[in-house]
Amino acid sequence: MAEEHLKLTIKALKDRFGLQESQLMKYPPALEAEPEMIVQICQVLRDEFKFDFLCELTAVDYWPEEEPRFNVIYGFYSHANNVRIMLRVSLNGDHPTLHTVEGVYRGANWHERELWDMFGINFEGHSDLRRILMSHDWEGHPLRKDYPLGYEEPQFSFNYDEIDKRKHHARYEEA
Amino acid sequence: MPEPLEVSYQELKHLVSERALQGDTVLLNMGPQHPSTHGVLRLLLELDGEVIINCVPDIGFLHTGIEKNMESKRWEMAEVMTDRTDYLNTTGNNLAYCLALERLIELDVPPRAQAVRVILVELERISNHLVWLGTHALDLAAMSMFLYCFRERESILDIKELCSGQRMMTTYFRPGGLWRDIPSEFEIAVRRFIRMFPSRIKQYDALLAKNPLFLDRTRNIGKLSKEDAINLSVTGPVLRGSGVAYDLRKAQPYSGYEQYDFDIPTGTHGDVYDRYLVRMEEMRQSLRIIQQALDKLPYGPFRSNNRKYVPPPRAELGTSMEAVIHHFKLWTEGFTIPKGAVYQPVESPKGELGYYVESSGGNKPYRVHMRTPSFVHLQALPFMCKGHLVADLVGIIGSVDIVLGDCDR
Prior knowledge:
Chain A is α/β, with parallel strands linked by helices. Chain A is 30% helix and 24% strand. In chain B, strands 1-2-3 form a 3-stranded antiparallel β-sheet.
């Protein structure tokens, strides 16, 4: 019964929105969607197919590929039918923008903030798009693949200048 | 030393009500060092007298970049970092990560390993709930609960130490099974615990469940309706307290949970007291599962025989060249996982813990994302505490059961 519901949903989404099945996802089954349609698809999934629960919202960066660069991954679960389905949305590297699905699933709010913070993906119409994990004056988006995994010496007020001097010294040596 | 950038008033204006801008309400900072925020959670409260009008959680103080770090470590090394996210449910995190990898490479896990995993994860669930119960009751001024709960938790930590040599960060589960077989004392230790624990739960219940002080502080506080809970992606005891019988161990069983007989407790009102009842019953159900798993603990290998992913036994290294090669390969470059992605949810004590793991075909994860229950539940906190008193907020935070390491990752 659950499997049938899943098949039915996938078929309906393919017919109505022209989605492709993703070859990458081993579990759960995933569909590839266009960024413009994401709110519509979410609405249909929730209201018609009873996927009332947004279980996952994350992104992957495929840098140095630029078009598409990001994949945003939505995971849905249906409490009524006990099945999962995922959506993958590809975005280009230049100003990646999506429309927020906060209006459909309120739980998406913080996940989208996290994606803005970590990947720099902009969500249009979001009610509160601020950084969530990094501090508000942080530069860059840490989970992007072109963001270096560096080690920073912790600077406190008592040793700030000393470390800063050492850092400047290193910079001169490089040059 | 540069001055920290100031946040402009315009940027944060939308978080509070109009009345705060007029000066009619008070803005109060709570945390991040407040003892009852269970870690480094900072809350911005807008208060009218003592009534909460708005609550804005501010997280990220414990952000350690675990997801980023995992991308630079080999598959088996990255598992060590999963322990450090939710430090009260370490084996549960290992389990989710291992299951995700096993699904990606279609690795078999022998029945003995699965049964041991279930026993340890259920013990961990009890230990997590004990920490929750102790701190939650402590927040509501029941000081002695904290001491009792930590006493019982100690015997669970001893069992973990018996298996793995570590009390907390065990990394005992490995892709394909366990690190090593359980020692012979394991069964005796667990049986002793199962015998002792039911009477202790009874004592806790006697101390709290009908205590008028506790009832006053918990009943009709922090209500969350069924629809709101689902729309906010809430899972675990909080969702079950609101009356939805969603438990991944029953809904989408893993690690052989389908063999065991247990119930899913649910609440009716969705308040703090119902969450308390649900968690207390869950501890009893966990004991049932452990009992059953221990009674039919199968003999046999404790890890898979697939040498491409699982190291060969020590004894073979002296006699088999192939074993030496496999061992050398695994210890120098690790194993590779074919291209693919998987989302693996498990039922952690706090709710649905999901690992999204993607491989690009190398010996390191390309991307790991943890869908952690604490992160999602904190988001629901403002919806629960609106209209309550500041003193009740402490009880609500406790009832949600957050771990900031889990939330900030």
